[in-house]
Amino acid sequence: MTVSGAWERTARGAMLLGSNGQLRPSIFAEMSALAVSTGSINLGQGFPDEDGPEEVLEAARQAITDGINQYPPGRGMPVLREAIATHQRRFYGLEWNPDTEVLVTAGATEALTATLLALTDEGDEVVTFEPFYDSYAAVIGLSKAKHVTVPLRAPDFQPDAADLRKAVTDRTRIILINDPHNPTGTVLSKETLSLIVLLAHQHDAIIVTDEVYEHLTFGVPHIPIATLPGARERTVSISSGGKTFNTTGWKIGWITARADLVDAILAVKQFLTYVNGAPFQPAIAVGLGLPSSYFLQAAGVLQGKRDLLTAGLARAGFTVTHPQGGYFVIADAAPLGFTNAADFCRALPALAGVVAVPVSAFVREQHVEGYASLVRFAYCKKMELLEQASTQLKQLQH
Ligand code: PMP
Ligand code: GLN
């Protein structure tokens, strides 16, 4: 499809469209379509292939039956805002006022978009890690801020302190972190988090933290940056029910932040979606109130899946890194003779009946060196499927 008119020649069109002016689907949509058209196992887009807790699903059905089908309040339904505030206190000891310091959004995606549009001016700098989740660059571009990155390098993908110090300056408006990190599976150490808080203070920057995988870490604690001394007042924390409750299609996300920051973000959010997902909001409230055993079990099950796929990829001949959290593992295809992961991922359905995503999709073109042969595989899938994929990937050695 060609987008008609001159939009493709505008700065936004040039940024969001492909080089030939064609509408370019996100890498995740492209790879899911490839999986469907080739009948391949989809380890590309990160979504679970099993339903989450029955209590949560039933609460949504019940809400529809009970007539919770019209616009909810702009800030989100009180029952969900209460549940978010209670969750933050219960797991992290953070106190947020559900009436003024909590905002429900259309997924973490809208939370990120509204936050960046609300809090940056043209020319402000936004610092992120690189590789970064694809919507970050698009939204920073839409906001007309400048995107500055700190590389995460294999094999451990931890940021270097000197790189962080160099990237954050008085021009920095926002330090946007993602912890646990997509695509690398890195969980930030307390030292790194402390340095980020220090730099935010030194340069009067706001910290925005995307913690959608907050409950999915493996043997290492998740430390919300807002819990560090001096961080709460300058941090916008973002999460979502999608990963925690296997409900990525519901798009119920949220923000916790100081009341004046929430107001600024709400001022933008009300003109993006206004509101969303009325019957899903009380259902996610039920999820947030589940016993701790649910959250521990969810992480435990996913850890087993990580271990299964990681071992399968290693047997197939990849060099595999060790994710500490999230849905994804990064594997280097170079030992198998593939130096360009984008070409490799396009060929993979024919070679092994599997779909994956090249890490280059999370890196800007000029920074691709060091990432070119890396491939992201999602392990948030059924055990049988991961086993089948591992078996099929062994064909790459022949
Ligand atoms: N941030 C990260 C790091 C993600 O991986 C995703 C994708 N699931 C999102 C944000 C988007 O979350 P949501 O589906 O809640 O909008
Ligand atoms: N977060 C998911 C991933 O990283 C995809 C979400 C999307 O398709 N936008 O695979």
Task: Give a quick rundown of the structure.
The chain has 398 residues and is α/β, with parallel strands linked by helices.
Explain this structure:
With 398 residues, the protein is α/β, with parallel strands linked by helices. The chain has two domains: 8-51 and 293-397, Aspartate Aminotransferase, domain 1 (Alpha-Beta Complex), CATH 3.90.1150.10; 54-290, Aspartate Aminotransferase, domain 2 (3-Layer(aba) Sandwich). It has 14 helices and 13 strands. Strands 2-8-7-6-5-3-4 form a seven-stranded mixed sheet, sandwiched between helices. Helix 5 (107-119) runs parallel beside helix 6, helix 5 packs across helix 10 and helix 12 (292-316) packs parallel to helix 14 (383-393). It is globular and about 60 Å long. 4'-deoxy-4'-aminopyridoxal-5'-phosphate is lined by residues 46, 107-109, 133, 178, 182, 210, 212, 240, 242, 248, 251, 253. The site of 4'-deoxy-4'-aminopyridoxal-5'-phosphate (PMP) has 14 residues, from helix 5.
Can you give keywords for this protein?
398 residues; Aspartate Aminotransferase, domain 1; four-stranded antiparallel sheet; 2 domains; alpha/beta; seven-stranded mixed sheet; Aspartate Aminotransferase, domain 2; 14 helices; binds glutamine; binds 4'-deoxy-4'-aminopyridoxal-5'-phosphate; globular
Topology:
Layout: H1 11-16, H2 27-38, E1 41-42, H3 54-65, H4 78-92, E2 102-106, H5 107-119, E3 125-130, H6 134-143, E4 146-151, H7 161-167, E5 172-178, H8 190-202, E6 206-210, E7 235-240, H9 241-244, E8 252-256, H10 259-272, H11 280-288, H12 292-316, E9 319-320, E10 328-332, H13 341-352, E11 354-355, E12 357-358, E13 374-378, H14 383-393
Parallel strand pairs: 1-11, 3-4, 3-5, 5-6, 6-7
Antiparallel strand pairs: 2-8, 7-8, 9-10, 10-13, 12-13
Residues 46, 107-109, 133, 178, 182, 210, 212, 240, 242, 248, 251, 253 line the site of 4'-deoxy-4'-aminopyridoxal-5'-phosphate (PMP).
